[in-house]
């Protein structure tokens, strides 16, 4: 049995709650997994320190490919009413309008999404409020002791605690940093309401590599225009401190082409700044416990693959592995490893890590290869912009003209 230091728990003679699966962490991965398992009749305990998920700056927009993952799990009827749809996105590159994309995306508040999912949990799967004070894992039974004194015995423990380290350390799993301070996510509300903004939604890519910013996305969430900016800065550097102090000034200087249509970037409320490390897990191939989502590895939110990776974990566990594991006695590491060796999971994780490294390199890489790629890409985009302008002016050549 492994204890988490400082728990101060001496459980009395408590009758354990016995379940098939105990899920620690009721964020996106944990709550969706608990829902789909509960819906097919599995006995599930879902443990989290908070009954209501606090406000948290994390994912705030997704596309139709990601909503299809919720649909596949039968959760679309729950999540779509919690989101704000948009279908007209103006894309700016090189300081000019590059494209107008008529595709559906959705804006959402992460905390509201999680609380909405929790409210829709099956009645037999409530959130058990508490922190794991002690954990014992083995090839047959797992045992959790909470700081409330409650005891949960399960055949399988799923750790879905995101970036939290307490349970991971108690189990003996290590987080390895692949790229510390890899990127920076910045979030803020515009003072301009959606009905006064010239665009339903806008994505503006930075013009200057020296800014070390990938792009800014502005989109509606309920009655607010929300800004998400992704770049390759450090949380403590002077640029970041200056942005926090006067975001309006810096945004107007970086992206003047959309400033007027976005209320000159007048900001309402504080600026959220979240540094991102790329990490992976070691020591996770163990009896009785499986790590999912950000508790297993983390990727860069800039290319927008995080939710795909998390929901792939949930889908593969729910539809493939957990049903097989529960069919036979025991829960030894050889069973658990089938999930980590699943080619679908591996592909999602590897793709997430690959595009995370690529997004940084194509934005900030100083080597000849990356400078050439940026020049090639921007030249092609500039020619496309010129071609569209010529077409609008009626200057495009007709077929057969010399």
Describe this structure in words.
The protein is an alpha/beta fold. The protein folds into three domains: 2-82 and 107-178 and 278-360, FAD/NAD(P)-binding domain, CATH 3.50.50; 179-276, 2-Layer Sandwich (D-Amino Acid Oxidase, Chain A, domain 2); 366-392. It is 34% helix and 29% strand. The protein contains twelve helices and 18 strands. It has helices spanning 28-39, 64-72, 76-79, 110-119, 166-171, 238-245, 247-254, 256-259, 306-327, 333-340, 343-364, 368-392, and strands spanning 2-3, 17-24, 44-48, 61-63, 84-86, 89-93, 96-101, 105-107, 127-129, 132-136, 142-146, 151-159, 174-190, 201-205, 213-221, 224-231, 267-282, 289-291. Strands 1, 2, 3, 9, 10, 11, 12 and 18 form an eight-stranded mixed β-sheet that branches. Strands 7-6-14-15-16-13-17 form a seven-stranded mixed β-sheet. Helix 1 links the parallel strand 2 and strand 3 (44-48). Helix 2 packs parallel to helix 9. The protein is elongated and about 75 Å long. The model is unreliable at 395-402 (pLDDT under 50).
């Amino acid at each position: 049995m492994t204890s988490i230091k400082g728990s101060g728990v001496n459980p009395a003679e408590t009758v354990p709650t016995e379940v098939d699966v105990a899920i620690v962490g009721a964020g996106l991965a944990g709550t969706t997994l608990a829902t789909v398992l509960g819906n097919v009749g599995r006995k599930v305990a879902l443990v989290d320190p908070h009954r209501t998920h606090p406000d948290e700056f994390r994912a705030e927009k997704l596309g139709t490919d990601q909503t299809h993952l919720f649909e596949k799990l039968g959760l679309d009827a729950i999540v779509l009413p919690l989101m704000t749809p948009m279908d007209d996105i103006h894309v700016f590159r090189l300081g000019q309008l590059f494209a107008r994309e008529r595709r559906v995306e959705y804006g959402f508040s992460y905390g509201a999404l999680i609380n909405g999912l929790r409210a829709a949990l099956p009645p037999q799967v409530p959130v058990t409020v508490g922190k794991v004070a002690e954990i014992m894992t083995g090839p047959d039974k797992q045992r959790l002791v909470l700081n409330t004194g409650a005891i949960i015995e399960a055949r399988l423990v799923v750790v879905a605690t995101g970036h939290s380290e307490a349970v991971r350390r108690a189990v003996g799993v290590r987080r390895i940093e692949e790229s510390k301070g890899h990127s920076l996510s910045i979030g803020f509300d515009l003072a301009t309401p959606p009905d006064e903004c010239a665009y339903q939604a806008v994505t503006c890519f930075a013009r200057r590599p020296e800014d070390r910013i990938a792009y800014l996305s502005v989109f509606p969430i309920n009655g607010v225009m929300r800004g998400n900016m992704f770049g390759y800065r450090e949380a403590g550097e002077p640029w970041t401190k200056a942005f926090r102090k006067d975001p309006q000034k810096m945004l107007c200087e970086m992206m003047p082409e959309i400033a007027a249509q976005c209320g000159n970037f007048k900001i309402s409320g504080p600026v959220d700044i979240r540094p991102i490390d790329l990490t992976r897990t070691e020591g996770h191939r163990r009896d009785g416990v499986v790590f999912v989502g950000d508790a297993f590895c983390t990727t860069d939110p800039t290319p927008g693959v995080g939710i795909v990776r998390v929901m792939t974990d949930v889908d593969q566990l729910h539809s493939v592995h957990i049903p097989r594991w529960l069919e036979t006695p025991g829960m030894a590491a050889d069973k658990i490893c089938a999930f980590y060796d699943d080619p679908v999971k591996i592909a999602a994780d590897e793709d997430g890590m690959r595009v995370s490294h690529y997004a940084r390199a194509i934005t900030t890489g100083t080597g000849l290869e990356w400078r050439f790629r940026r020049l090639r890409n921007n030249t092609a985009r500039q020619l496309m912009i010129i071609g569209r302008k010529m077409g609008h002016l009626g200057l495009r050549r007709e077929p057969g003209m010399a």
